[in-house]
Amino acid sequence: TSNINAKLHYSNGRAIITAASARALGGEIRISGRLEQSKAGNPLNLAIAGSATGLDISSVPVIKHKNAQGFLSGNFVLSGTTNKPKLDIITQLRHGKLNKIKLGTTAARLVITKTGLEVKRAEIAAASGIIRATGTIKQKQLNITMQAQSLDLLQSLSPFGIKDHSGTVDFSGSITGTLSNPVASGAIEIYEWQNGRYHFDYANADI
Questions:
Q1: Rounded Cα gap, residues 43 and 175, in angstroms
Q2: Confidence category of residue 102, pLDDT binned at 50, 70, 90
Q3: Among 97, 101, 136, 139, who pairs with 69 as Cys (CB 3.0-4.6 Å)?
Q4: Where are the alpha helices (DSSP H) in the chain?
Q5: How far apart are CA 96 and CA 103, in angstroms?
Q6: Backbone phi, then psi, for 160, in 5-degree steps?
Q7: Exposure string for 93-126, b = 16+ CB within 10 A, e = fewer
Q8: Confidence category of residue 2, pLDDT binned at 50, 70, 90
Q9: Contact 132/144 with Cβ under 8 angstroms?
Q10: What single DSSP character describes residue 164?
């Protein structure tokens, strides 16, 4: 973190932040609010609101992973205490990429605590389709419920060197495992699949 600017007032155990900004995580964070100590020796109570622009997702501690890329912007509220903070975020991701798959417009509401990240709501444009998800990431373990609609099979598989399949995929299920080794389970439906001279109109399977 560098280039910190702040205006604040302190009195009787309460700090009022009228405006503060900092360069951090590759972007900029702006905040205002208050920190208050109800009793000597107690942790500070937090009531802070702010905005962030251009944060590098690969530098965010709770997400940090080489397979997650992109830049976050949005608004947030920091509550709780200094020893048990809670961060509510409404955010958008641009230039996103996860495990070689490029992501389009991505919007989410997230809650971050010391124990991990909760995805309250996420909607991601990817492979010409839409992915919706809720769930948690704790200690790099995934527990995500997901629905995917109208994903282009060729666009989904090409980043992994598989370029001889085409069609459209729907998926409803869950993602568990880790960021580097995710495991999908659920129901998958494929429409207009083709591989060379082989073709079928529709197929479904449980995975």
A1: 37
A2: confident
A3: 97
A4: 153-157
A5: 5
A6: -100, 15
A7: beebbbeebebeebebbbebeeebbbbeebebeb
A8: low
A9: no
A10: S
Q: Is the entire prediction scored with pTM above 0.90?
A: no
Residue with tokens 């509510």: 88
CA–CA gap between residue 163 and residue 181 (Å, rounded): 22
pLDDT in tens, 144-161: 999 999 999 988 888 778
pLDDT surpassing 60 at residue 195: yes
pLDDT for 139: 84
Strand locations in 25-165 (E): 27-36, 45-56, 68-81, 84-98, 101-113, 116-126, 129-138, 141-152
**DSSP structure class, residue 172:** E
What secondary structure letter does DSSP report for 37?
A: -
61's CB contacts (< 8 A; 6+ apart) are: none
Find the largest Cα–Cα distance for the chain.
Answer: 78
Task: Specify the length of the chain in residues.
Answer: 207
Residue owning tokens 């230039």: 95
